[in-house]
What we know:
It contains 16 helices and 3 strands. By secondary structure, it is mostly helical. It binds s-citryldethia Coenzyme A.
Amino acid sequence: MSDxxxxxxxxxxxxxDVPVVASSVSYIDGxxxxxxxxxxxxxxxxxxxxxxxxxxxxxxxxxxxRAEFDGFKKRLAEQRELPARMxxxxxxxxxxxxxxxxxxxxxxxxxxxxxxxxxHNPDDVQDAxxxxxxxxxxxxxxxDRLRSGKDYVAPDPTLDTAANFLYMLTGAKPDxxxxxxxxxxxxxxAEHTMNASTFAxxxxxxxxxxxxxxxxxxxxxxxxxxxxxxxxRVLEVLKDIGSPDKVxxxxxxxxxxxxxxxxxxxxxxxVKDPRALILQDLAxxxxxxxxxxxxYDVAVELERQVEKRLGQRGIYPxxxxxxxxxxxxLGIATDLFTPVFAISRVAGYCAHWMxxxxxxxxxxxxxxxxxxxxxxxxxxxxx
Length: 383
Ligand code: SDX
């Protein structure tokens, strides 16, 4: 018997560059800084589309006709209503808890109110995706108001997703420009190939779990500071640094201590994330309109200093670097930045869930065992 024929399996840490699905939802060229949803460049979608149209595109793979889009928008507006007990549940959650935890719990709970989640029934599939995309912003805004002792503001069916979210947070209709800025930010965050939370969604989907479970699991994965949670950390860092002249010593100390600079680096992009370019431009437009934010100058200097030291290694700003500056200027609380990411990304999760269901095979990778064998069990009295 030969023991030389079977090659030893090789461990790929973080599954870097390992394809785990075949997908037509989105595409990235990390060297050229290209991102496309269903073949459409992100720059075109940011300039010409809307978040709601982008959701349709992600779910169905093509742009909607006027009639399809009007019907979709109407259904989204209808699906924003929450059951009274859902609002009671949000009120009962600890106000000091993180809104991402509230969101994860409440998407899961939302599934308990739905009887239409048979994954083999096409109508249920459409209903569940619509419900999740429509209700996620409502859950975030409702938790934010209730945790601070304010009244729940019911959704306004005449507003689109972005405008309604800002309205539900404040109780006042947002101006069109602010709503459009948030709408573009939602377009930018809706989908991004096999990132950690989308992969989590596909793994859970592969077990034939229902879409609410898929999305709440993915939202859990998005929470971490190496992923969606970075946007919140970026603003904290910029505030801590305080002024552009303090950036260089801060970067020196951070890199010397082998610390990560939040909002920089990406597994796929080796150039500046195209979404960061668009968000930076949005931030500038917001400042022209609403007045500048000193923190922006700190961000620009931080980018310059990090690029000087790490640019040659392909470490540039990612999507999380400028998003917080934009959200803060829109009056959104820092701990809602990652939930705002989630409001948008659930569209991508749903698109991947539907794709996973076609020819599904449960994820069950292998491992390289590093423990012992046939160990002797010693009775507890003798240990
Ligand atoms: C998102 O995957 C997606 O698409 C995610 C996302 C999406 O839309 O879904 O784009 C959203 O999650 C954006 C990323 C947000 N996270 C951060 O901003 C946290 C800071 N960034 C890093 O931790 C890191 O760059 C990651 C997590 C984004 C990528 O991690 P990798 O690919 O595993 O790279 P790594 O951590 O192994 O770093 C490789 C090298 C290391 O140096 P060496 O050990 O080789 O000497 O690059 C260095 C790292 O120390 N490095 C950084 C750095 N990022 C990488 N050094 C300082 N600061 C950083 N930010």
